[in-house]
Amino acid sequence: MPLLGAEPATQFCTIIVRPRPGQRADTLGSALSRAVAELDSNLPTYFAGTAARLHDEILGGNRIIATLFSIFGAVAFVLSAVGLYGVMSFSVTQRTQEFGIRMALGADAARIFRMVMTQGAWQLGIGLVLGAGGAALLLGVLAAAALQNILFKVNTLDPFIYVGVAGMLALVAAASCFVPARRATQVDPIVALRYE
């Protein structure tokens, strides 16, 4: 065997074996370990398996990190949605008396609804501009540069990602504005005028 006459490896040696046609690759690992042990029982076999299994073992840590980032991202998204809803609901509740006065003076429900939705859109727009143009973009670019080794075939400065996040926040903000705006249109002017 030419392997026996080879120079000894300083650290380790990798042997890649291709199975014969019709032979299962997952059965070669134990046979290869036995063959190495027959040649020299002092030679340890660290890994004897298929390339797919080796690939899975190498990428296992990165997959766990990616899953954790996905979970943290989902939790952050839910927290931002709850926060947006809370802010909009609080804003509408604080203005209940104003809505009552407007309705008593002749404003219809559609106008009140549009007013609340428009003001919510302004708040969202200002928040997105300040967030995207300021610290969030800077932190996002820095984090993306740090994660570039983990991300495979993903451009860290892909505008689709940033536009997608802004679009998702816009949808959450619209939904967060809708419920309080709808509640504002159902305010009884008499009750609203007494509201403190």
Could you say which overall geometry the principal axes of the C-alpha atoms support? rod-shaped
Distance between the termini: 94 Å
Q: Name the structural class.
A: mainly alpha
> Count of helices?
7
Taking all residues together, what is the mean pLDDT? 78
Strands, count: 0
**Major sheet attributes:** none
The domain count comes to 2
N to C succession of SSEs: HHHHHHH
Strand content: under 5%
Radius of gyration: 31 Å
Which stretches are poorly predicted, pLDDT < 50 over at least 5 residues? none
Task: Describe the SSE topology.
Blueprint lengths: L27 H12 L11 H44 L1 H9 L4 H25 L1 H12 L12 H27 L3 H6 L2
Compact summary:
With 196 residues, this protein is mainly alpha-helical.
Task: Summarize the structure in words.
With 196 residues, this protein is mainly alpha-helical. It has 2 domains: 1-49, no CATH class; 59-194, no CATH class. Helix content is 69%, strand content 0%. The chain contains 7 helices and no strands. It has helices at 28-39, 51-94, 96-104, 109-133, 135-146, 159-185, 189-194. The model has no long low-confidence stretch (mean pLDDT 78).
